[in-house]
Amino acid sequence: MSHYTDNLTQLGGDARPVDDPARAVLERVPNPHADVDYVARFTVPEFTSLCPVTGQPDFAHLVIDYVPGDWLVESKSLKLFLTSFRNHGAFHEDCTIHIAKRLRDLLAPRWLRIGGFWYPRGGIPIDVFWQTSEPPKGVLVPDFGVATYRGRG
């Protein structure tokens, strides 16, 4: 194994998602270009969680952008972490901010933002946005690329 994967527990093996985001393991790998400010983006067009009141599924399109420092998130662990919300009851705001804080705490990025574009429940979409700070000067930060609600889909 390379030094990038020596401490990873999920990559290359059978790893099943858990049903609780607090128990989900997020892993990181060294950033081979820590000397460069660049944006890495994860787009999650089919994120799901459960309404904590009704137990009905909620759906969102998430966009996660970050400027890495010394660490990158390992993508399989991110997928498993995000999947752990499928049977987890939480409000839209809680899911979105929980994801952002876990990534911030794991990676200590130079900058991170998340856009949670939630599909309507009761006729009202709830979009949730959060970022750690202003992005580093000179870094290209693309638009989220998700239209405001007009019958999203």
Automatic annotation (TrEMBL):
Any GO molecular function: preQ1 synthase activity
Pathway: tRNA modification; tRNA-queuosine biosynthesis
Protein name per UniProt: NADPH-dependent 7-cyano-7-deazaguanine reductase
EC nos: 1.7.1.13
Residues annotated as the enzyme's active site: 51, 58
Pfam families on file: QueF
Gene name linked to the record: queF
UniProt keyword terms in alphabetical order: Cytoplasm, NADP, Oxidoreductase, Queuosine biosynthesis
Role this protein plays: Catalyzes the NADPH-dependent reduction of 7-cyano-7-deazaguanine (preQ0) to 7-aminomethyl-7-deazaguanine (preQ1).
Known catalytic reactions: 7-aminomethyl-7-carbaguanine + 2 NADP(+) = 7-cyano-7-carbaguanine + 2 NADPH + 3 H(+)
